[in-house]
Design brief:
The complex is a heterodimer of chains A (177) and B (616). Chain A is built from 6 helices and 8 strands, in the order βαββαββαββαβαα. Chain A has 177 residues and is α+β, with helices and mostly antiparallel strands. The longest helix of chain A is centred in the N-terminal third of the chain and has 11 residues. The two termini of chain A are 32 Å apart. The C terminus of chain A is likely disordered. Chain B has 24 helices and 17 strands. In chain B, α11 packs parallel to α14 and α17 packs across α23. Helix content of chain B is 38%, strand content 13%. The chains are: A alpha+beta (177), B alpha+beta (616). Chains A and B meet through α1 of A and α7 and β13 of B.
């Protein structure tokens, strides 16, 4: 079973234990600046959001790399950077749509999440269960469940303006249905 | 070895910065943070120095566990001589800057002298630079924080800053870090501003790597995180209600000082409690509490992030206060609310925002307003002084006005900035100041919790709950229950809590862990991280040494046993209601025994034997 990191921002308290665990596993020091997972604090909204590589199937970083320094770990699905092959050209950091591959000036190489070879330290360190390592095909399960549970009356107020046409009209217009 | 081994010395007078090795012999004797920085201060300044003169020094200091995965390992302290008390000051704060200083490769930063013009320190790993702060002077902490982040073009910089209250010389100004955490007590912010030092901005990317036994450290810290998780207070209560879980508990106990400590129970407590912060408001349907939040490395996450109702009179037409920010902790809710008789939760939250925005200690500020309200009720302070404002107990309008003028240092705000002791002296009623050594009381009435009377009277930084929190034992039964109405065993209890707390502070972790941890939980974490042997017994000796070092400084600064006392109100006027009805604090039953236990003379001085035993 392929597993993936599941991130639930509503459970995050912004403590950065994940960043310390990640940096320790990768560098031997507690050093949030070198973490491959990042917690973003939106102070004025009172929200915290952990964020890291999703391990895309057709990974843009991997395809963009001119020296084939990014390879798939078949056991975990992680896209790993081969440090001795990487030339630090940063093309992958541009290719990644999410910004989760980053250049590290000290080493002259890029760093990204490698799922710790299948035992991610961030998930182990998270005290609130905001980061878990679960079946990759079920990362949206809880969200689906909570939406399914809601009665129409209890649905949260929408902030988006109403669409002019229902979505399915658009889809049928493509001849897809 | 967990310490970085580096001290940054910043001479503000001549604008020079230098690097020096940490004195490891002292680290062995005083551990770090509070203890170690106090040792540096004691060695480097004359205790009789004017706190606001260039001869005073100010030290920002981390502990060996700061910046590590030990739960709550993000604490730092600001150590200096206090302008409020004339005693040694050590104000502890969480947030993120402590870990950032450590990550930049420094154990402490010593500021000395006084800059001729306003400056701020920009510290990025090995690079330390004093930059002009002319454009930041006169700005609030929140404004300056934004300007510095923009100027440095680095959102990841962590900032400690003083606000306008400190610039105006309010004697209980705080050093605010990360917008809403504060080294709050004793006027450490006032000292920082007196040196023309507006802010310290830090970015560290070196990390904390030199742990003595990394594998054991990870095991020991993980084991203790489980202890915190499984404890009902640290695992659930604190995350859900924060320290505000105490408001109703202490009120029922009849130990909630009310209206300048005239009473011991507040009829409006339930309206400003931790529970009330969860209640949806009738006006906008949202609760006051937006979320809980953690400081660096903290697995308890007791921090309150709150939002004020946009239609509330305090913030109507002021969209700059409509966002979420640091909300009410128990001490702030008590001082701003109970002690002034104000039961308007949103008003208290707004005033708390102002205390963060402009950097004042909400305990000292609230208590000073309470004293002024009592004087107003007596007709001593009048509308002439306040410019027409009715400064009555219970008035939310008066409280928010008082906060606004204090932050700006305008009119009567100047008087409020003096603190309760000097304000009451100025208006001819020193007996109405609820202070010890010039510092205002926190939220536990020593008529209902006897041990706290002794803890307050003997605290090295004036009235304070964080120097010996006997409430743990007397109210919560941690580590074991003692009778809050009895003085029996309280000298022993107070001494034990004072020494243990000195260790917790000096390690760089949070005192709230001690709701679940004892020193037996803390010692193995320190021992795995730091060179040398750190047993519980040795740490207790370290704690006792730190306590005596601070005491010795205070005595040499001119304080005496006469200062180890409580306001007459608490010693003579009995509690009027509740379980402690009829009680005063019986300090005289405890103090002589405490002196003897400490190895001090009957006049509270260190004996030669005590000095020798502790290596002082």
């Amino acid at each position: 079973m392929l597993k993936a990191l599941k991130l639930e921002p509503e459970k995050c308290t912004g403590c950065l234990q994940c960043e310390m665990a990640c940096s320790y596993e990768n560098t031997g020091a507690f050093n949030p600046a070198k973490s491959r997972i990042k917690v973003f604090t939106f102070h004025e909204e009172g929200r915290f959001a952990p964020y890291t590589c999703t391990q895309c199937d057709e990974a843009w970083c991997m395809h963009a790399c001119p020296v084939e320094a990014i390879v798939v770990d078949m056991a975990t699905g992680a896209k790993n950077v081969l440090e001795d092959v990487c030339v630090g050209c940063k093309v992958c950091t541009i290719a990644c749509p999410f910004g989760t591959v980053n250049y590290e000036a000290d080493s002259g190489k890029v760093i990204k999440c490698d799922l710790c070879g299948g035992d991610p330290w961030c998930a182990k360190a998270c005290p609130t269960g905001a980061i878990t390592y679960v079946d990759a095909s079920e990362t949206g399960m809880e969200r689906m469940r909570s939406w399914a549970q809601q009665s129409p009356d209890a649905a949260p107020p929408r902030t988006n303006p109403p669409r002019e046409k229902p979505l399915n009209v658009y889809l049928s217009g493509q001849g897809g249905m | 070895m967990a310490w970085t081994g580096n001290v940054l010395r910043v001479n503000l007078t001549d604008g020079k910065v230098s690097k020096e090795p940490l004195n490891m012999e002292w680290a062995r004797q005083y551990l770090g943070q509070r203890g170690l920085a106090s040792k540096y201060l004691v060695e480097e300044i004359d205790p009789k120095v004017d706190a606001l003169s260039p001869e005073n020094k100010l030290i920002m200091t981390t502990g060996p566990l700061t910046g590590t995965m030990a739960s709550t390992g993000g604490r730092y302290s600001v150590v200096t001589k206090s302008p409020l008390t004339g005693a040694i000051a050590c104000s502890n704060s969480g947030g993120f800057i402590g870990a950032e200083i450590k990550n930049a490769g420094w154990d402490m930063i010593i500021f000395e002298g006084k800059s001729p013009t306003p400056v701020y320190l920009y510290l990025e790993n090995e690079t330390a630079e004093l930059r002009s702060a002319e454009h930041l002077w006169g700005k609030s902490v929140w404004e300056a924080d934004k300007l510095i982040h923009n100027e440095l073009q680095d959102p990841q910089v962590r900032i400690s800053c003083v606000g306008r209250a400190a610039e105006h010389g309010a004697l209980y100004a705080a050093v605010v870090n990360d917008l809403h955490r504060a080294a709050g007590r004793s006027g450490v912010g006032t000292v920082m501003a007196s040196k023309n030092l507006k802010a310290v901005a830090v970015r560290g990317t070196k990390g904390v790597g030199n742990i003595k036994d990394p594998i054991r450290f990870l095991q020991e810290t993980e084991k203790r995180k489980q202890v915190l998780q499984q404890n009902p207070v640290t695992g659930q209560g604190m995350a859900t209600y924060g320290t505000q879980v105490l408001m109703n508990v202490i009120n029922e106990l009849g130990a909630l000082p009310t209206r300048n400590m005239r009473e011991v129970q507040f009829e409006g407590a339930h309206k400003i409690s931790g529970e009330a912060m969860h209640e949806p408001r009738p006006t906008d349907g949202k609760p006051n509490l937006t979320t809980n939040a953690a400081c660096f490395g903290c697995t308890i996450a007791c921090g309150r992030i709150s939002t004020v109702d946009k239609g509330h009179f305090t913030v109507k037409n002021k969209p700059e206060y409509w966002h979420a920010s640091g909300g009410l902790e128990y001490e702030a809710a008590w001082a701003l609310g109970t002690d002034t008789g104000v039961d308007d939760l949103d008003c208290l939250t707004y005033v708390n925002f102002l205390c963060n925005e402009d950097g004042v200690d909400p305990i000292s500020f609230g208590s000073t307003v309470a004293a002024a309200m009592e004087l107003y009720g007596m007709g001593v302070i009048t509308k002439e002084h306040t410019g027409g404002v009715e400064l009555k107990f219970g008035s939310a309008e008066a409280l928010s006005w008082a906060a606004e003028v204090t932050m700006k240092g305008e009119g009567f705000g100047k008087d409020l900035g003096l603190g309760s002791k000097r304000l009451c002296e100025k208006y001819g009623h020193p007996e109405l100041s609820m202070t010890v050594k010039g510092q205002e009381f926190p939220a536990y009435d020593p008529r209902g919790i006897q041990g706290m009377g002794l803890a307050y009277a003997t605290s090295n930084r004036g009235a304070c709950h964080l120097r010996g929190y006997t409430v743990s034992s007397e109210v919560l039964g941690i580590p074991e229950k003692t009778d809050p109405h009895s003085t029996e065993g309280k000298p022993e209890l107070t001494k034990a809590f004072q020494d243990a707390t000195a260790v917790v502070d000096s390690a760089g972790i949070c005192v709230f862990t001690t709701f679940a941890w004892t020193l037996d939980d803390i010692a193995p974490q320190i021992d795995a991280a730091c060179e040398g042997d750190w047993s519980t017994e040795y740490l207790l000796e370290v704690g006792e040494r730190i306590w005596n070092l601070e005491r010795d400084f205070n005595l040499r600064a001119g304080l005496t046993a006469k200062d180890d006392t409580l306001p007459t109100r608490l010693l003579k006027e009995a509690a009027n209601v509740g379980p402690a009805k009829g009680s005063v604090n019986r300090l005289d039953e405890m103090l002589p025994k405490y002196y003897a236990l400490r190895g001090w003379t009957p006049t509270g001085e260190l004996t030669p034997e005590t000095r020798q035993r502790l290596g002082l």
